[in-house]
Specification:
Number of helices of chain A: 10
Distance between the termini of chain B: 47 Å
Shape of chain A: elongated
Order of helices and strands of chain A: HHHHHHHHHH
Number of strands of chain B: 0
Order of helices and strands of chain B: HHHHHHHH
Largest sheet of chain B: none
Oligomer: heterodimer
Largest interface: A-B, 57 and 78 residues
Helix content of chain B: 55-70%
Radius of gyration of chain B: 16 Å
Strand content of chain A: under 5%
Number of strands of chain A: 0
Strand content of chain B: under 5%
Chain lengths: 223, 165
């Protein structure tokens, strides 16, 4: 097939795409009143649902930080040093995650379908992909859930149990969370462990977001 | 632009919506959903219409953004059904001189393009100028020209690989 034949085929194809009125569009476009109905239906749109979920998670995060902060404030004693350090670290990581959620809400408000396709799709894809940043941040606090109950007294009374069980478990969790923090990134999205960690539907969305960002980068590099 | 005015103009250019829905959706119910979402977003965004753009250019911007987001959120990877081939046969008005095989192949090959290339192809089908395509997609005119040439090469190559004339 040469270029001219392709042009002729494209022209006919365009006509066919336009003429195939498979939609019941005319009825709801021409009927202005339908817009009111649409508005009610779309009030429950995915985007609004997403904003609501993020707001609820943010609220729960803030409540958790306040609760842990309250416990830390009432435990400021050298005897509870492990608890104070661990709970403070958990508080910091949760606050960080809440901040990222807040940033997502700001980005969600910036989504505007009247922007150019590249600008808008890049924003959506980055937003979609950055949801895994929350997971990365929250994983960093994992080791501190193994240490908050430690005490100097416990180490003195049962050194063997501490050094052979509690301590190695905390070390494993620390190394594991650091490894995951470093490796949960774009470049590993197609690795098997990544697919297992993020269940199927989410992985599917992430790969599509990743593909879109790669495609956008390709466009940008060309210009 | 007020809502009544935008509804009037959407109905004047409704072919754009048909074309985008037919290009990005897997089946009839998805096309219905996408069409409805596009109309909703167009009416919702009417206050943001910038008269410096042609209405159809602005309409393409909104519709393509909605369609690409819709396509990305879809979990299906099926081949987009060729419109006018099954349940829609009675509504189709295709050129009888061209073989059905070529239509089907072209539809499949366009469907295999990446989302942004597909968007450029749809605008090219509409005979939009490079300037307008650049405005909708958000790239330079040179970039549009390069992309269109590449898309044509890909399509021609695929036809050759499948021994279609």
């Amino acid at each position: 097939m040469d270029n001219n034949q392709l042009e002729i085929l494209l022209e006919s194809y365009n006509h066919r795409l336009e003429e195939a009125r498979v939609l019941n569009l005319q009825s709801w476009v021409l009927n202005y009143k339908c817009y009111e109905e649409l508005q009610t239906q779309k009030a429950k749109s995915k985007l609004k649902g997403l904003i609501l979920v993020k707001l609820v998670v943010m609220l729960l995060g803030v409540l958790w930080v306040l609760f842990v902060g309250f416990l830390v404030y009432h435990s400021l004693d050298i005897v509870k040093i492990f608890f104070v350090i661990s709970a403070s670290a958990i508080m910091i990581f949760t606050s960080w995650a809440v901040f990222v959620y807040g940033h997502h809400l700001v980005l969600l408000r910036k989504i505007n379908n009247t922007d150019s396709v590249i600008k808008n799709q890049e924003l959506i894809a980055r937003l979609q992909f950055s949801t895994i940043n929350i997971t990365r941040i929250l994983l960093l606090q994992m080791p501190f859930y193994c240490t908050f109950w430690w005490s100097i007294q416990m180490i003195e009374n049962a050194p063997a149990a501490f050094w052979f069980i509690s301590f190695p478990v905390a070390v494993i969790f620390s190394l594991g969370s650091l490894w995951l923090y470093k490796n949960i990134t774009f470049k590993n999205v197609n690795k098997k462990w990544f697919k297992i960690l993020f269940n199927n539907p989410e992985w599917h969305l992430l790969t599509k977001a990743n593909d879109m960002l790669n495609e956008i980068d390709e466009f940008k590099n060309e210009s | 632009m007020d809502q009544k005015e935008i509804v009037k103009r959407i109905s004047e250019h409704q072919k754009i919506i048909y074309k985008i829905c037919n290009s990005y959706c897997y089946n009839k119910s998805d096309r219905e959903d996408l069409g409805q979402e596009i109309v909703y977003q167009l009416i919702k965004s009417c206050s943001l219409y910038n008269p410096q753009f042609q209405f159809t250019t602005w309409m393409y911007r909104v519709a393509l953004n909605v369609a690409i987001s819709f396509y990305r959120s879809s979990k299906k990877e099926d081949v987009v059904e060729l419109v006018g081939s099954h349940e829609d046969a009675e509504d189709s008005n295709h050129d009888g001189d061209l073989a059905e095989d070529n239509f089907r192949a072209l539809h499949q090959f366009i469907n295999e393009l990446k989302a942004l290339d597909k968007a450029i192809t749809i605008l090219y089908l509409e005979s939009k100028s490079y300037k307008e395509i650049a405005e909708v997609i958000g790239i330079s005119e040179t970039n549009v020209a390069t992309r269109i040439n590449r898309i044509k090469k890909i399509l021609t190559q695929k036809f050759s690989n499948h021994n279609l004339k």
